[in-house]
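Exercise: predict the fold of this chain.
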Amino acid sequence: MFHYFKFNQEEFMQHYHARSNIETSFHMIKSKFGNSIKSKKWIAQQNELLAKVLCHNIVVVIHEMYELKIKTDF
């Protein structure tokens, strides 16, 4: 991997930053909504996780609306 990094830095960094963005999103979701899933059944666990991701996305959109002063019309 070191040789790949050394000789293909640009391509390596594109993949690395994609991974770091995903890890950052997971950290934000866990810190905001908790580290565990409370549901017992598999489908309920999936739904709970998807709800956390949806809520995270809504929070990020609202934050950017106020940060960038974007006017919205829903």
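Check your answer against the key: The mean pLDDT is 88.
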